Every structure is written in C-alpha cells, then in structure tokens.
Amino acid sequence: MNKFRSAILGGAGAPSMGPIVASKSGRNAEGDRLASVEIPRDAGRTADHRDEDRHRLARETAVIAYKGKKLTVDLINLSGGGAMIEADITPRLWDRIDLYLGEGMPVECAVRWLRKNRIGLEFAHETHIECDAEQRDALLLEVIRRSFPELVAAPPAAAPQPEPEAAPQDATRRGEARHPLIWNGTILWQHDEHKVRLRNISASGVLIDSQVDLPEGVEVMLDLGDCGQYFATVSWSRCGQAGLLFRAPFDLSALAAGKPEVAPQRSRTPSYLDLSSDQSSPWAPGWERRDLADLRNSLEGFLKY
Question: Bridge-partner residues for 111, per DSSP?
C-alpha cells in the first residue's frame, strides 16, 4: 500500500496492479465518516467555497439539453452550485436543463431564475447514479440500511401496492424521484490530495466537482474511502468540474460500503443565483426530493412488488 501511494503522490504514475486496491482506514478517521479523515495540506482551508461565485467567464460556451434538444449556449458564470447561461430559449422556472461542460455525463440542473435571455441554473444536490432504475433503487436501499440504521429500526410505513395496469406510470415516476445522498472522495495527484464531490457516476466514469483544475490526460487515483480506490484518467476539465474515465469498469454496488453525506432540505446557492433569500430550492417541490425515511419506505414498497 505504501509503495502504491508513493507512486501516485510522487507523480510516477500508476504501478502495474489492478485498479481496485484493498480497503484501508483513513488517518484518524472516525468510523465510516469520510469527512473525518485528516488530509495534509500546506495551508488549511478556512471555508467551504464550493457554492461561491468563483468562475466568471468570458466568451465561453457550453451545450445544454432542453426538451429533448441539444443546443450551444453562452456560459457566463460557473461555480460548484450552479451556472449562469445565455440562451435563445424561454424555459419556465423549475424546468430541467442538462448542462454539458465536457464529454460524457451532464450536470442535472433546474432553472432558478430568468432575466431576459439569461438563465440561472442550480445544480442537483445528489450524486446521480447512472444505471437502470431497479439497480439504482436496490443500491439506495442498501445504503440506507447500512449507513442509517436508525431508519431501518423503525417499522416502515405501509407503501401502496401498485396496480398492474399502472406499472408503466409508476416506473416513470420512480425514474424521476430524487434522493438526497451525496458521495465525496479524494483525488491523489502530484504530491497532493484534493477533496472532490461526485456529481454523476457510472460504470465507465465519474463527473467531479473540485477545487483544482486537473490537466486533461493525466492519471489520478480516486479514493472513495470504504468504497475503494480507483485509477482514472482525466478526459476533460473545466472550471473545477472534470470528467474521469475509470481504468476498469466500476462496480456501482461498491457505493453501498461508504456513508454518503445527506444534503440539507434547503439549498445554499451561489450569490449570483440567490436573488431572493427566502426562495427555497426548486428540487424539493418540483422534483419530488424525499427525506431518507420516505425514500426508504418507497423503495421497499417498489422492490417488494
């Protein structure tokens, strides 16, 4: 393990071994809390700046998907919590827009505000898991049972049994229901470690939000704590967002081994998006975002029947 980490932190690249390293304990970690792991830094971070306005852009473009169509738009501003775009479209508040900052998976967004042809987008809070609905539901239920046992101890509320003829509609509703879970990790690259937030993850890659702009083409190690350690290549990088391609297919069930963060019910958006301090997040009323207890009850009902 020491040889493995020395190779990565020393910039020598990955040693000739499998992409999944045996599980290890974080330094001074408290149980399964990833946030409790001490990460050495030359200077300590005094605040969490992920949701702040940290990337004002000039003459940048991006691609969005809206109502089944893709189009190129001007990217005015970008941060860890949202983006401002300029586009010749007329969406409604809380409409969904998928924002492509690079190749591969998009960032799911909701329309936060509208001003002429400028649109404020808020990023989805949860880590989006790219797989079929049944696999995702089973994974989420396993995560709740392992990491939040206090919810499992209470008897679940009775879940309505879907009627046979209503199955297609129920399946659609399942696919759109949100969850509040966020997976975090650490990128090991060139003598340093950087905390990252997982936006999207699939068997082939992951979209991360970080405090550093990783160069395209470099190989890094993504440390997900109890979920494992994985080699990946940076396929694109832009304003703190980056797409990583796993060296070997990622087993999504590994996410159940770690305890994710639970997003707050009320969002804290960047200052340039938060035009009204009493405006709640669109993800709760418009996207059926659920608390963990309600989510568990729904998942147990669907998977049972």
Answer: 121
